[in-house]
Amino acid sequence: MQKGILLVNLGSPESPDPKDVKKYLGEFLMDERVIDVPLWARNLLVKGIILNTRPKASAAAYKKIWWKEGSPLIVLSERLQNKIQKQVEEPVALAMRYGSMTIKKGLQELVDKGVDEVLLFPLYPQFAMATTETITVLAEEIRQQYFPNLKIESVPAFYNKPDYIEVLSNAIKNHLEGKNCDHLLFSYHGVPERHIRKSDITKSHCKIDGSCCVTPSKAHEFCYRHQCYEVTRLVVEKLGLKEGSYSTSFQSRLGFDPWLLPYTDRTIERLGKEGIKNMAIVTPAFVSDCLETLEEIAMEGQEIFHEMGGKDFTTVPCLNDDDEFVNLLSKWISEWTKTPIEIN
Ligand SMILES: C=CC1=C(C)c2cc3[nH]c(cc4nc(cc5[nH]c(cc1n2)c(C)c5CCC(=O)O)C(CCC(=O)O)=C4C)c(C)c3C=C
Ligand SMILES: [Fe+2]
Ligand SMILES: [Fe+2]
């Protein structure tokens, strides 16, 4: 058996041009695991409303964060792939759930290299229907249709692995060293509350209240909200943060449905109003910096904080191609391939 690895991230538009942004948003938001309403309603909402209003504003936001080499999310994912490939003997390919770097092309690239057993690695620490699930479901559909002899094994959410928490905590500690920080905000991408209920395998656990996510349950294997709160809890424990010096919030809501609370923008506002002068934000739902971290948090979030009288505002970069993170992913891959690796 020849083994290979397929890393999968979300994707990004081809360019920050409104035409390309519209095309990308069309594919992304028509995914039934992202906007999870019946097809007729999704068509109405996405094609009838969102794609006629959002692409211009989104394109302007993408323009602010776009790099010479391309979309930060894609460039950073490629750097991660290249660094892992330097440590791992087996071929490591990269694909995006949306856009031109498709999962089909990624699998084809591995098959062309003689691979018949793939480790599918969604680059998300927490499980969500809109991320991990849509990747694994699509990969399986593609396998059945085009590569029926290929074996695919998926890496589950790694939010509570002690070595991941250690790498994340070290990155936060290193970034904050020598900086003023009175409050650390853990901001996770939000999801509609309905997604949490839909992913509840017990069908009765998730109440989305103050207690369900801290009450042990089988449901937590697929509960995005629980997994986000667990990352905060475990990092807080590791860094020895005091009660009151940190919070958890959810960003990037879209539409009128209730999304997970509290919202990040309102939380930043509250912290400023309460007299916090120096704050930091970490965004552990994202492995790679992207529009949501570089624009929504580092630019818009900072502006809100300053308007509320805040002073120092710092954003902890995502793990991106951090050496400790590369070593960790390479180690997990080598545990699967059973080929020892040499850590650079
Ligand atoms: C980290 C995990 C993510 C979850 C969960 C998620 C859910 C989700 N997102 C939208 C709508 C949008 N998201 C957008 C950008 C975006 N989302 C994620 C990650 C998650 N999304 C990333 C990494 C990015 C950035 C991509 C980049 O190119 O840099 C956007 C596009 C930007 C905008 O117009 O604001 C939308 C729209 C929904 C509806 C959703 C539902 C569960
Ligand atoms: Fe999103
Ligand atoms: Fe819960």
Automatic annotation (TrEMBL):
EC number: 4.98.1.1
Reaction catalysis annotation: heme b + 2 H(+) = protoporphyrin IX + Fe(2+); Fe-coproporphyrin III + 2 H(+) = coproporphyrin III + Fe(2+)
Pathway note: Porphyrin-containing compound metabolism; protoheme biosynthesis; protoheme from protoporphyrin-IX: step 1/1
Location of the protein in the cell: Cytoplasm
Enzyme class: lyase
Tagged with keyword Iron: yes
Principal location class: cytoplasm
Highest taxon of source: Bacteria
Binding site for Fe(2+): H189, E292
Keywords tagged on the record: Cytoplasm, Heme biosynthesis, Iron, Lyase, Metal-binding, Porphyrin biosynthesis
InterPro entries in the cross-refs: Ferrochelatase, Ferrochelatase_C, Ferrochelatase_N
PANTHER family membership: FERROCHELATASE, FERROCHELATASE, MITOCHONDRIAL
Function: Catalyzes the ferrous insertion into protoporphyrin IX.
Record-stated family: Belongs to the ferrochelatase family.
Protein name: Ferrochelatase
